[in-house]
Amino acid sequence: MIASEGEHPLSLQGIHKAFGAIQVLRDVSCDFRAGEVHCLMGENGAGKSTLIRIASGAYSPDSGNVILAGRPLDSMTPRWARDNGIATIYQELDLIPNLDGAENMLLGREPRGRLGRIDRAERLRRARAVLNSMHVSVDLDRPVQELGIAQQQMIAIAKSLTDECRVMILDEPTAVFTRTETRALFNLVKKLREQRIAVVFISHHMEEIFEIGDRITVLRDGSVASTGTIAEYNHDRLVRDMVGRDVKRPVRRSAQTTNAPLLEVRDLSDGETVQGVSFSVGRGEIVGMAGLIGSGRTETARLIFGATRPRSGQIVLDGKTVSPSDPFQAVKLGIGMVPEDRKRDGLVLTRSILENGGYTLVRKLSHAGWVPWRRVRREVTDRTRGLAVRPATPKTLVARLSGGNQQKVVLSRWLAAGVSLLILDEPTRGVDIGARSEIYAVIRTLAERGIGILLISSDLPEILSQSDRIVVMAKGRIAGELAGEGATEEAVMALAFRTRPESIA
Amino acid sequence: MTPSSSLAEPRRFFTQLIVGSSSEQKNLLRLLAILLAVAVIGAAISGGVLLRPQNLSNILQQNAVLLVVVTAQFLVIVTGGFDLSVGAAVALASVVFVSSLDHGVGLAILAALVSGLLLGLVNGVLVTFVRLPSFVVTLGTMQIGYSLAKVWTGGGTIDAAPGGATIPRQLNSFYSTNLIGLPLPVWVALMVLVLVAIYLRTSTGCFVFAVGGNSRAARLAGISTSRVRLVAYATASLAASVAGLLFSLRVGYGDPQAGVMLPLDSIAAVSIGGVSLTGGRGSLIAGFMGVLIIAMLDNLMNLLGVNVTLQPVVKGVIVILTVFAYGLRRD
Amino acid sequence: MRSARFRPQSLARHGQVVAVVILFGLAAVLEPDFLTRFNLSSIAFQYSVIGLIALGQFPVILTAGIDLSQGSVIGITAVVTAMAAQVMGYQLGIVAALLAGTASGVITGLLVAYTRIPAFVVTLGMMSIGRGLALTISSGRPIPLLNLSFMHLAHLRLLGVPASFAFFLLCAALLALFLTQWPLGRAIYAVGGHEENARLTGLDVPRIKICVYGFSGLMAGFAGVLLTAKIGTGHPLSGTGYELVSISAVIIGGASLFGGIGRTSGIVAGVLLLGILDSVLNLSGVSPYVQGTVKGSIVLIALAFSQYSVSRSARR
Hints:
heterotrimer; A: alpha/beta; 6-stranded mixed sheet; 17 helices; B: mainly alpha; two-stranded antiparallel ribbon; 15 helices; 2 strands; 1% strand
């Protein structure tokens, strides 16, 4: 499979990478060929992001080689990679928010006029030339932070095209795109291919892969599960290779049939991403919420939790209409939430397990400010022991824990709080397999105790195996509900893509 | 870096009271080592003068005001802010106190404390609800506070204003009276320190660290971040007004220009104690030790007859060097 | 990519300039002494000194840094000017002072750029060190200038405008051009806008930081020279507390302490606003003690108002 050296603009050979105790990549080899669109596929946490970060010089591998145009490299920095024709468009764009598009595209390489002054007309001309070659039009006069995310992405791509570029890595570029924008991007990718640029394309949308890809490499649990030309794959094989199991259905929770209603959401809107969402969660019921990234799931959760205020609609909890204007009040009402972005929204990284796991307990148990720390400590220890947080002393800083353990700390916070509704937003993202099953066990225990669970996840097997009922969101609306035998991966995906049926392969 | 398991064992009440996570305990041990090193080397080159009980007691007495202000500053820094108005709170409290002595000592103390509380509430409201950066807010209230203090006294210092009061005799000796080997003002400073330490162990105190460490996460954990911030700023200025009382008792008058250097000196001391200026971590005792280190070095330089004008140079170098060393450690 | 907390928006963009015009108009109408030559030139001199260091502070704040050492650098340069002028004439004295200012700024910049010490702490330390050095070099005493032509500098006029003020405006114009039209100027905005992305884009972030702090030191040097010329002695305590005034002017001028936002015209307006306010309060006989309260309150209210309008427009 390994081709002769010098043939490919970029090859990775035998890459190993671990973060702490977690082995993220195991012996991954991959060739990116000129004039080919190479799709990297894999579930969340399969190691795609780590791989492209190694390819672009942001991380260095523990062992293995990065081979650039036949030359093996010892160490590579982002700067060096860029100078040598590897352009990477991360999901987090590398733009400067307060500068305009043209400035961003040519930052540090501005065309100069007299006395070293920036030749602004020339800069604008060059920027426009690149954008024209991409057949996109972007407002170049405003700071990029005022532009939509798709336009920002176009500028980021255009920025890397102003360099000589031999490899272009696109990390889930379409996640936030509308159909037209995706179309424009695909045309661009095809153009790059014609220019003999090696394109590395990461996407969760399978129909996109089949439309644009020439070659596929599937990663599973940090290893290459399979690789080959697009013709060798079909939808089923791709899913099988990614998931690693064939027909075997994940263990499904026995559906609870009689659930007294706990939460009812009626026609909830925030005027932007969430447009008239209605659904319900019963006592002791686990409702899975599926949908593509950007379909409004997280935003819906934040509305229910009071983190943002709805523009219209009703939230009925326990038969009473509530309108939490702040998470503080939502917690009082018995709502808890495990947020999507653990580090940004879930944890206070500068503090200990005891405190992070104990915020709700501290609030519940304190009398006139006095906190029975001994009891808080005991309870947090008990609950985190149930979750087997390792290596755990209550005073360990949460920053030192692995992703799975951090998530368990956030979860333990709500175990203690006595909530009646718990919203879990991507609770197992970046969490290793072992910790996952522990988290699932906790979710089930909570449900058995009568707590209503809203489980938001992009991980289909997870949604299918853990939920009693599944609601699917698409474009800010509920696209449909599934339960029992009707709840299959295909059915969920069909609903999730409902707004763009013509693109389904 | 996993903490050794021995650190996880239950400790005595007072360590529990003040000390936070295990990394903070390591920091404290390090600070203690620095302090001891300064003390031993200092004692050696000063011929033992530095460590004489009388000298140590003097050092503490001279730095009682700073100690209280550092306690206040620590509280705000933990929330991720700065309080540049601590000096103004000292000045305001000092003139309010002295000028209200007519109405009795108790009332005068109360009035001074209220002045601090009000200043702190203004800070808190502007930072919390108007969402202005704390640096800007407290820069403004610093100016306002000093100006109000001057308006109050008519510009000069205030001791025996017509119809006003002088510091009563029993208060006059307050600063030099010893109790169990330490001057009274030191006891007051330690009391403020312990009170704030206890405060940090209450629920709001725990939340103060959370808000400073990650206010988004704190909010999503159901913490009322605005209330926590407001209370922190108010408490800080309240503590600073206690420092104002001590100041007046020390100099014997109310000074509307008191404590101009206190905001920056207190931030320097907190930095030397290894408290992160970005908030969310650090222990109060580290700030306390930061003060002790600066105070000992100051005292040592005086004992050695180092030129007074060179002392700020040494101090500046030490601030930069220690914070530099903390940066290295985090690698 | 997350958007910054303060957004520039068209209405607030020239808010400070509008405010200056209005305030100037009001002052001229309501306060008969305001437009007198004596009054205007005394504001002009005092606020050209503050203006110069505000121009120095501005690029530092654009990179999300802060320079608390400006006041002390003024102290050093005041002493250096006077001492050097005694030995080698005032022209070389000025050169020596500017070199000293720039050098201390560059040292600050090196520390900020290459160590992980926050700018706040570095410049806090430099503030202490600078003042200590100024006092040590001068043995704590003001150094007399004994040179009339140097002292004359402070009273020089160009077309009726005090030369110091003309110099301030010239510097402002140059800085404005530089920040908008030269690569390094844009790089300064980029570092403040998103330092990590600026680094990933290949900008030499440390060099940029050294430049802004060096520039701040240079401007403090000019301020020190002017102050020395004005009072006729090189005073080691010159410029005490000026750093906070320059920071105030920059913030009132619409710059964000989080970096990347602000315009030079706004900074000039911020300086003028402070100057006019000061003058009006003086002329209308407001007690100097009350002035602090008035000024502080006006500044806080203005900032609160602009914050309110910014957050409203961000929500829309």
